Amino acid sequence: DAGVTQSPTHLIKTRGQQVTLRCSPKSGHDTVSWYQQALGQGPQFIFQYYEEEERQRGNFPDRFSGHQFPNYSSELNVNALLLGDSALYLCASSYLSGGAGDTQYFGPGTRLTVL
Amino acid sequence: QKEVEQNSGPLSVPEGAIASLNCTYSDRGSQSFFWYRQYSGKSPELIMFIYSNGDKEDGRFTAQLNKASQYVSLLIRDSQPSDSATYLCAVTRFSGGYNKLIFGAGTRLAVHP
Question: What is the side-by-side strand order in the sheet with B54-58?
């Protein structure tokens, strides 16, 4: 049973650049949530996708955008990168249609460093 | 006041002891509660979830929920050095018609031989 996968593992960018992170949910899951985790902090909710639509959004600027594809995989895009965007970006999947949308399983994360 | 509060620790316990991790939350409407374990440099791993008041046991782990007092705890029996990690508490918050997970900052547990 394939778990949640994310790519790339690590990424180094410079200020002002744009980045795209990718996530494939656990087999059988239909919902993808994205989180940002700064060092020493808990994950902060960015947004959630279900049925290819953004269902909810946390307190993140419009520079953060996303997409969900028909196969349930998802992308997170961040434009105009700032130094403060350096963090571990986590994707979590869940099975909303099965009534277990709250139970989320995390991927290994993408470590983004902005120089 | 943070929505989900945890003592940052470190909580240091000897091997074989019971580790008790606590979490309080502010939203009385929260319905689902989760404990995740996160090793340094890794992603969070789901340990347990609990929805109803009382205790829920899974192996060496017991989650306790008291909605009236708005706290949830995790007990780890027979603690092992491999349990040394940061433990994240997460609760759901209903907003805009949907639930979303709100995390605490985590409690660092150190189990020493």
Answer: B4-6, B19-25, B71-76, B61-66, B54-58
- Asked if A40's CB is within 8 angstroms of B100's CB, the reply is no
Q: How far apart are CA A91 and CA A115, in angstroms?
A: 23
Quick check: B12 and B110 in contact, CB under 8 A? yes
Provide the 8-state DSSP code for A37.
E
What tens digit of pLDDT does each residue of A62-71 get?
999 999 999 9
The answer to whether B90 and B36 are in contact (CB under 8 A) is: yes
Measured between CA atoms, the residue of chain A closest to residue B100 is: A102
What size, in residues, is chain B?
113
**Residue B100: predicted pLDDT:** 86
The reply to whether B18 touches chain A by the CB within 8 Å rule is no
What is the mean pLDDT of the segment spanning B24-38? Answer: 94
With an 8 Å Cβ cutoff, is B34 touching chain A?
yes
Inter-residue contact B3 to B26 (CB < 8 Å): yes
Q: Which of A56, A102, A107 sits opposite B43 (nearest CB)?
A: A107
Tell me which residue of A27, A104, A23 sits closest to A67, measured CA to CA.
Answer: A23
Question: What are the phi and psi torsion angles at A41 (to 5°)?
Answer: -120, 165
pLDDT > 70? residue B8: yes
Q: What is the pLDDT of residues B69-110, one digit of tens each?
A: 999 999 999 999 999 999 999 998 877 777 789 999 999 999
pLDDT at A100 over 70: no
Q: Please judge whether B44 and A48 are an interchain contact, meaning their C-beta atoms are less than 8 angstroms apart.
A: no
